Amino acid sequence: MILSKKNTLNTIEKLPLWHEIIRYWELLSVLVPQSLNTRYRGSFLGVYWSLLNPIIMTILYTVIFGATFASYFGNSIINYMFAAFTGLLVINFYNSSTTQALSSIVVNGDLLNKIKLPLPVFPLSMIAANVFQFVVGSLPLLIIVTLIKTHNIFFAFLLLFPFIALVLVCTGIGLFLSALFVFFRDLGYFYEITTFIVWITSPVFYPAEIVPQRVQPFLYLNPLVPIIESIRQISLEGTFPEISHLMKGFFSGIIILTLGWLFFRRVQSSFMDLL
Fold first, then answer.
1. What's 74's DSSP letter?
2. pTM of the model
């Protein structure tokens, strides 16, 4: 029996895919804490600073737009406040994770010239660091909001599905941006404009219903829209999200991740000449 187990283990360890997974995991276990420590070194609140922006912006949106848009959220300013907060959590996660992934290869250029490492691990570590930050900082508050509105822990578990779709989207875009930034260093300036467009076309501080019908199909080209709508249906309405929203979120995430990964693998052989 012992010999059989040892033989099985040896067979598994010889598999290239298994070795690659182990290697990525080991590198991420080093790079993610390093990224978080660098980001929050000397900080009093640490990862909880990530909550400050959405909380302040939620208050501002509620003061400015709450009375105007409350009718779309059950004639309740409190509902509008929660809706704005959920939208801000999604858009902030997207902005921070993809922006940090964008420069991850170039920032580590000196290290890559000294040590041979799998290049995708750097943008992936940025996404993983933001996932950890979200799970520790923002997710508990989102779960509390969900429990307050629904009084059912089942809906707190449902939040996992749109969040997975969000991570897929951000990972694919992060891989694409980090690869492209190696060739075009001005990309960071253009991406600031892109993030503004993504924010303004996402129903963060306004309900999607106010967008004219002829424009709404274009609005849903934004992969974050079905994710935001799914989270709001779960946390605010206490209903299972529309299947169309979940499918759009997951399909968008899978397609974007596949394209981002293929592009990254296609061009990564040229990175070292430019770093």
1. T
2. 0.88
